[in-house]
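Shipment paperwork, digital attachment
Item: protein structure file
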Amino acid sequence: MSNQYPQPGWNRAGSGYPQQQPQFQSRFPQQPHHQPYPPQQQGGAPDPWPTPKKKRTGLVVTLVLVVVLLAGGGVGVWLWQGGGGGTGSGSDPSADLPANESLQEMAFPDPNSFGYGEGAEAMCGALKEKMRTRGYEQVSGKRTDGTGLYCRFLTPGLSLLKEGSIDLRADIAVWKDNAEQRYAELQEGALSQSEQLRQKPEYTANAVERFPVGDAGFIFHREGVRTDTEAYFRSGEYLMLISVWGTEKVSLDPVSSTTLPAEVTYGEITGILMTLSGEGEPSPPRIIPPEQEKNPLFDAMADLRMPEKPTAQQACPAIAAATEPAGLTTGGGAGCTLSRGSDDWRDHTEGYVEMNLAVRTDHYPSTGNILATEELARDVQSRLSSTKRECTPLYSLPFAETGYAVYCGNILWAGFVVGGETYVDIEYSGHRVRNSDLEAVPVDEVMGLLVTVVTAMADG
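Attachment content:
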């Protein structure tokens, strides 16, 4: 066994929301998140895009197009807070946009093929399965206005423990009705924003280019603290968005992320599009799968189902009852803390075992500044990079989309995320007396104890 893990300093650049930071300080610097839904204006945030002035006749369409800017004045995803009424002229406003030779004609996906007509939960659930093939996990989903459904996906935190890993976020949204009018306003806003960003030396903004999908489409790429690229395209009564943004880790220093070139984000957007439509050859996924191994002892947990929002306090009586045969008893402290041992040195004879076990749970709303999967990954990186002990492989947990267990010396660290928002963290330490010396409890014995603890937390 060897401890071949990154050194301290891992950071999730470009992963927070532009809102007031929580009172506690994360161990790792955060960039503000992309807002997932039409946001409230935050204090100090720039005004939304200026809309070009022009005369309108007939039915008045009320539209509020909100832009979220990331820290330092960057641009975020554009979403609709209003709409309705009116139709466009039927012309293709994207016909006048410059073409990109790397973008060929592509098929417009059928929104109903991934559950648009059944609501946000059904659509995001169907998209989750498709996006998993590209390495993403779903973090949230919501109805954005009367007809808009919106799903957000991110790179699993355990995929970001190496230099050179790419931290990608992706948004997929669908609107129905008034597609021409909505699209025209969005393209006008993109053109205006492109001109504004080109006046700022800290940004690189590409020209708004034609995105050859459906009846009309555009794609807009810019780079600041991170990279943001969005493609809007319409067909008939439907308007779709595929947005990708993120950074690449060039080293493990907290601020050593670099932006992604247009070739990467264009390729990822078209790869997602082809995955949704089922037509064409999607580009290979750019997200690196987590390097985890299976532990046969964990097969017993394959069918476990956790409560929707488990808490350590609620689970503690069941954990205490399940671990009583191992000699553990509850103690003080936050969460659920159990221990086995004696303060009397005369008890520390051959075969004496001392153990400490702590289970804690923290809830991180999917619209918050810090995500549960990110906090889990920070703990993994911090622990593995700071330990000098030899470690087992990083094991996966079969019941959890995001979860791990690793035993280093005499310390077990394990954690998993429930429902995308609850982070369960488990830490164990222990030793036994052998030949008048202290030795770690065997790994299989400790992993067996972990199975007992997790099983006690599960429903039923």
